[in-house]
Specification:
Blueprint: E1 10-11, H1 15-21, H2 27-53, E2 69-73, E3 83-87, H3 96-116, E4 128-132, E5 141-143, E6 148-150, H4 165-179, H5 187-209, E7 219-220, E8 235-236, E9 245-246, E10 250-251, H6 267-270, H7 276-289, H8 297-306, H9 316-331, H10 336-347
Parallel strand pairs: 2-4, 4-6
Antiparallel strand pairs: 1-5, 2-3, 5-6, 7-8, 9-10
Helix pairs in contact: 1-2, 3-4, 3-5, 4-5, 5-7, 7-10, 8-9, 9-10
Length: 353
């Protein structure tokens, strides 16, 4: 495993979706989408420069049993981190966005600690920082390699980006990938990077709600889309390609199997599109095994991500093969879990042996 960390700039709303909105006949919607795209492009450039310079988040002291959270308010500007408005252990204030961000940071910490014995993003107690009210009508949320940042949305197509805990978990899980397998953000490795965040984001929501796999909605970003949008979320792990079908957003392009794999040069080789395939494999595994998804399916995925054998340029088949080995190592060769992993990857058309 590559020990040189290469943080990437990761947004919850993919570029292909914003590209579509930027072509809207509604001038306001098009303008907001264009401004969001321009901002995100600038942030990606800054992230690459920071990576080249070798600047990385400082490692914290060995982790404890509690998170160290700080929430900042950008006050609709784009200078980070902004003004501190809530620290660890302080009481909730009047700002619901601040309170949701604080709670989401805690939920993410708790899932990784309780289910996998991991102490924060870096497994060494890294403080969890978040900035809310970022920019003006900024239609995204992102992990910049150091902290979480949330826009308020435009109140039209997108609502407040703290509205769904799986969005918070998704972005923070990019940090877990950054500190473990360090998957390159390109083509299948990038789609795996995105999928890991969807998987753990969904698990965080399920853990928070104490849901079994069959009770979960398996949606990423439920509640984020505006009331007039024809859709339920940004992505569906249960049924990739069905999350939205809207005049402004277009139709959800995610494939569920390799038969529909999308070859594209956009979005770093379709990292937000083809992530539907490993997403669906995880959903199939979790629902086949039943019970609490983080206990067996999630453990297998976590073991695979953090086991040290997953290369930075891994393909779906590499992850599949290693997940089969992880299932055998954790639960026994030839057992229920081992067979279920093989079956899940087979159903999405990815060779696992």
């Amino acid at each position: 495993m590559d020990t040189n960390r290469h943080p990437v700039f990761c947004t919850i709303v993919p570029p292909h979706l914003l590209d579509r909105i930027a072509l809207s006949e509604d001038a306001r919607r098009a303008d907001i989408a264009q401004r969001t795209l321009e901002h995100d492009s600038l942030q990606r450039t800054r992230r690459r420069i920071t990576t080249v310079r070798g600047i990385a988040p400082a490692l914290a002291a060995p982790g404890g049993e509690r998170p160290e959270r700080t929430v900042y308010d950008a006050e609709h500007r784009t200078r980070l981190p902004g003004t501190k408005v809530r620290g660890e252990g302080s009481e909730p204030g009047q700002d619901a966005t601040v309170n949701r961000a604080y709670a989401g940071l805690g939920a993410t910490f708790e899932l990784f600690r309780s289910a996998f014995g991991r102490h924060s993003i870096d497994d060494a107690g890294l403080p969890l920082d978040a900035t809310v009210h970022y920019g003006v009508e900024y239609n995204n949320a992102f992990w910049d390699g150091r902290q979480m940042v949330f826009g308020d949305g435009d109140g039209d197509l997108f609502l407040d980006f703290t509205v769904s805990v799986d969005i918070i978990g998704h972005e923070l899980a990019h940090g877990v990938t950054q500190y473990t397998a360090n998957l390159e953000y390109y083509k299948q490795a990038g789609a795996l990077n995105e999928s890991m965040s969807d998987v753990f984001g969904s698990l965080i929501k399920q853990y928070t709600l104490d849901q079994t796999a069959d009770q979960a909605d398996w949606l990423i970003g439920a509640g984020l889309l505006g009331p007039d949008v024809s859709g339920v979320a940004l992505r569906s792990m249960k049924a990739p390609g069905t999350a939205y079908d809207d005049d402004e957003l277009g139709k959800d392009p995610q494939p569920a199997t390799m038969d529909d794999y999308v070859n594209t040069s956009r979005d770093n080789g379709g990292v937000h599109i083809n992530s539907g395939i490993p997403n669906h494999a995880f959903y199939l595994l979790a629902t086949d095994l039943g019970g609490k998804a983080w206990e067996r399916a999630g453990q297998i995925w976590y073991d695979t991500l953090t086991g040290g054998e997953l290369g930075t340029k891994a393909k779906f088949s590499d992850f599949a093969r290693l997940s089969v080995a992880a299932a055998s190592a954790r639960f026994g060769d030839g057992g229920t879990e081992h067979q279920a992993v093989l079956k899940a990857w087979s159903q999405v058309g990815v060779p696992a042996e």
